[in-house]
Amino acid sequence: MTVLGLALPVTFTGQQLPVTSRSRHSLVVKCSSERQILFNRIAPVYDNLNDLLSLGQHRIWKNMAVSWSGAKTGDHVLDLCCGSGDLSFLLSEKVGFNGKVMGLDFSSEQLAVASSRQNLRDRSCYKCIEWIEGDALDLPFDDCKFDAITMGYGLRNVVDRDRAMREMYRVLKPGSRVSILDFNKSNQPMTRFMQEWMIDNVVVPVASFYSLAKEYEYLKYSINGYLTGQELEALALEAGFSSARHYEISGGFMGNLVAVR
Ligand SMILES: C/C(=C\Cc1cc(O)c2ccccc2c1O)CCC[C@H](C)CCC[C@H](C)CCCC(C)C
Ligand SMILES: C[S@@+](CC[C@H](N)C(=O)[O-])C[C@H]1O[C@@H](n2cnc3c(N)ncnc32)[C@H](O)[C@@H]1O
Known about the structure:
With 261 residues, this protein is of the alpha/beta class. It has one domain (44-187, 219-260): Rossmann fold. The protein has 8 helices and 11 strands. A 7-stranded mixed beta sheet has the order 7-6-5-8-9-11-10, sandwiched between helices. β5, α3 and β6 form a beta-alpha-beta unit. Bound molecules: ligand LLAZDA3J and S-adenosylmethionine. Ligand LLAZDA3J is lined by residues 42, 46, 50, 53-55, 57-58, 153, 156-157, 195, 198-199, 203, 215-216, 218-219, 222, 250, 253.
């Protein structure tokens, strides 16, 4: 799906990739390896900037996403695109030391932060978390394995959302839920304007102090290329989920999709 600009096929490691936008300087091709590099680069400051730039609110949103997943004591659950592990830690508190949490990400640097955070914490439930370096588009798990899946700020960042949704469906047990938290691509012009204004005038200037302006500029591009709540519900139903509901939170700045297999 092209987002902006020309949809000229670009061969990259044998794949046909759409050119998604044309900047003043060069063609910008956003593919998995470039996103892997981006998230490896921001890993050292990712958690602190999330806390600072959202005034700590992102922890509330992540708590909501985990609650919506339905994860409970003793469950085996998956946190997809786990990054530095925020949702994995919250899931482990839900499933307890008898449960199992698998945190999967393709960024080795993000997983290194997650693992070091785990070692610094002494709650017994955190010992049930296993970190896996893998691809959300080709999950290394059997069918119908998990009692719940979370995906925090990940679906917007994968290069093939249909495939990611189908993989989640495949590895989820029947009757179980996936809970997908991300920015909301609002239908309200004022909300979109305020979201973009915050990114342009607060997020990116702060990120520039860490020489990460370009990485955080990607946020606006990726939100513009994301799906609306209604489109996310349709995506889940097309992947085979029996029901799907998108909830807007935090004034429409964020949103959470809950789908049942
Ligand atoms: C946890 C949050 C974002 C995670 C995140 C997701 C991405 O796709 C990125 C891509 C590139 C760089 C960084 C990220 C990234 O951090 C949400 C909170 C952190 C945001 C960076 C802050 C966004 C501010 C909102 C536009 C306005 C917040 C209003 C709030 C009520 C104070
Ligand atoms: C914005 S971070 C979200 C991290 C964490 N879930 C959170 O809520 O803070 C997005 C994560 O998705 C990962 N990611 C993007 N595409 C992926 C893919 N195809 N497979 C695995 N991880 C992927 C990135 O490496 C990054 O760690």
